[in-house]
């Protein structure tokens, strides 16, 4: 059994050896050597080899003839092959010999092809690199020329187009690394230029505004001279056409490289042209920076920065100097800076898209307007010079017109000017108060002498005056009024002109101007001139002659009031009879002044009379005179002489009836009557003076003599115009009282008291009682031994009886 298995295993190994590659026979043989039947296997292997040899031999025997034939043919072929080889070798030799030149040419051609390909590659690379280098060179040139916006455009094209096409070269990498740095440099440089620009326009706002206001002033003069014509250009632009013209010349695309903001002013060389305000400013830094930041995607940052900086500058511009109110130049600099600021903003508004918008500019203007109005109200309140206020008003109007030409609303400024009109009026009143006082102080209070027709016409041309009777008189002659009248009338007209000057260019209607002038003139008449006239009347050392001349002057000024009305109507073109037109109060003003002068005359006369009366030295205890006639007191004689000379002055008072004037001689009559009444009252007060406790009959006789002297003066008619004995009525109270005592007619007085026909109707029982009490006291003290004389006792009893009856009469009357 074991032998069978061994034989089968050997058979398998032999088959494996036959069928397996010799490289892998090792493991198979190892398995044989590892077994115990090595010899047996070798025997089987030999038997198998012999078997295979027999089979090979059989096969060879079977194919031997074909093999011999093949060898024979092969030998033949070998001879032919040798010949072929010789021919091929020979041919190859010839071919090699002949191909050497071709090989050389082919090598040369190959080298040329390589060079050609290298050249084409180089050209291609250079084609992509040269634009990069050229563009970078252009970039450097633009940077050196400070053309930053084109440089930024070049930089963008270099980065996005040229460098990607050029390839990965070291110089390209260096350029790519420098691009962000160049952008930052351009941005910072543009911002630096913008800061310089902002600082420059802040410093030069005064000059810009001055030029703009000159344009506006020239435009106004052109408009006034050619009112029907359309507004013409100033310089190269009109005031309103300026922004449009600038926009048309510059474009409004903020991303346009041509929009540099530099205005063309080369052609503006004509002598009588004013350069445009924008011609003074190079706006290219603003546009350049705006374009650069737009390209960099930082437009919002730039807009916010620009607006913030301009707001700060606006606050600085709107802050007035503390001494601005001292001179007009201070106001002018203030307005110039503001106009310059807003001219720049208006130009930026119309030449950029969105850097500043209308809302932003209007907000700045509203802020500015409130601060301007507040500053002007504050500083103008310090001004007390009407000329400065008028110049300031004209400057404000020019300022408003200038900004209105750029589209800014200025109604608040004109409203403020109307407020300033009241202040201007008050300042004018103060100035004219000084002027009137100077006229009053310089006046000589004498009629104006004229020696020639020329002088006469000169005065009558200064103030309205017509007197046919005076014109008929030969030269030399005198005008009835003093220098005060023509000077005051001229000053009134000057005041009206001053008021008219302020109302110009305020866009007021003729009616409003007329009303303003009339109200201001009324204030001048009722306040200033009235006070000055009161000053002239009340000042010290004013004599009666001066007061008389004041009355004459005010009378003539009163007559001239309707000429003032016509004068105002002529300059305002408003008829005086217009409905609701304000009327001048000059008539009442001069009438009041005249009345005051008249009252002052009366007061002055009475004061002078009091001075004379202070010299009265009556002997109240004088005895009854004998048969000789008593003489009037010295002081009274002097007083009457003074009154006579004084009343002769009143012949110069107006004597022709005129409207609103005093009647002929009325002032003189009133003064004379007032003087007589004052004398009578003063003498009565002397009698009733509490300090005079005793009065004798002799003193009453002396007083009676003085009263008769006064009555003689009144009866002589010191002033014409009194009817009958009217002037004597001033002394009637005193006359009846003295007659009652000197005639001792008490029975008649007591019997007829209260009757209209009473002889002593003007004697007051209280007055009579007081005087009797003083006479009683005199009788008691002077007649110590009166009780020893029957006549004295009877007189004492009579006085006591009369006193008792008077007291009963007073009591009955009181009941």
TrEMBL record:
Residues 44-213 form the Exocyst complex component EXOC6/Sec15 N-terminal domain. Belongs to the SEC15 family. This is Exocyst complex component. It holds the Pfam family EXOC6_Sec15_N. One of its GO terms (biological process) is vesicle tethering involved in exocytosis. Component of the exocyst complex involved in the docking of exocytic vesicles with fusion sites on the plasma membrane. Gene3D superfamilies: Dsl1p vesicle tethering complex, Tip20p subunit, domain D, Exocyst complex subunit Sec15 C-terminal domain, N-terminal subdomain. The keyword NAD does not apply. Residues 412-774 form the Exocyst complex subunit EXOC6/Sec15 C-terminal domain. Keywords: Exocytosis, Transport. The lineage of its organism: Eukaryota, Metazoa, Chordata, Craniata, Vertebrata. GO terms for cellular component: exocyst; plasma membrane.
